[in-house]
Amino acid sequence: MLRLDSTPLGNNSVRFQQIRIPGDGRCLFRSVVHGACLRSGKPSPTESLEKELADELRAKVADEFIKRRKDTEWFLEDDFDTYVGRMRQPHVWGGEPELLMSSHVLRMPISVYMRGGNSGSLKIIAEYGQEYGKENPICVLYHGYGHYDALQSQTNNGQSKQSKTR
């Protein structure tokens, strides 16, 4: 079941369709795996598959923190082991550190957008995984209050970028 906003977002050069993600504590991971499916040319996952893939990504992200402990320990807000243990729980919110680790796990770039000012136009607020390329990143929308939705890029005629490249 695709949960699309009816109004495309963005400016003239890049337009997005917002894909609503449930606010169940997994929204960051759900948004990223949804975008990874689209980026890979796969169909949008069902809600149950999206949840399963999100939980798998979460586990791999926690493992990636451990793998990169020397590089990541300093920027986590809590004791490293406590943080990673908490992050393994399915309803704990993810943030910037998890986006960074997700880009490494998936070996894909991730761009985070936010609505800007009163215009509601989208602007990139963070980019992760640029070492894996800059083209066709996974795009997520951060709402500023702990929630993420997926974004699907579209051409000017309204087709998804993924369907255009098939």
Outline the structure in words.
This protein has six helices and six strands. By secondary structure, it is α+β, with helices and mostly antiparallel strands. A six-stranded mixed β-sheet has the order 1-2-6-5-3-4. Helix 1 packs across helix 2 and helix 2 packs across helix 5 (96-106).
Stretches where pLDDT is under 50 for at least 5 consecutive residues are 1-8, 162-166
Q: How much β-strand is present in the residues?
A: 15-25%
Kindly report the spatial arrangement of strands forming the biggest sheet. 1-2-6-5-3-4
Largest sheet data: 6 strands, mixed
The structure class reads alpha+beta
What is the terminal-to-terminal distance?
21 Å
**Radius of gyration in whole Å, from Cα?**
16 Å
DSSP strand count: 6
In round numbers, the mean pLDDT is 86
- Element order, helices and strands? EEHHHHHEEEEH
From the spread of the alpha carbons, the general shape counts as: globular
How much helix is in the residues?
Answer: 25-40%
Number of helices: 6
Q: Could you give the topology of this structure?
A:
Elements: E1 9-10, E2 15-19, H1 27-39, H2 47-67, H3 69-72, H4 80-87, H5 96-106, E3 110-116, E4 121-128, E5 138-142, E6 148-154, H6 161-165
Parallel strand pairs: 3-5
Antiparallel strand pairs: 1-2, 2-6, 3-4, 5-6
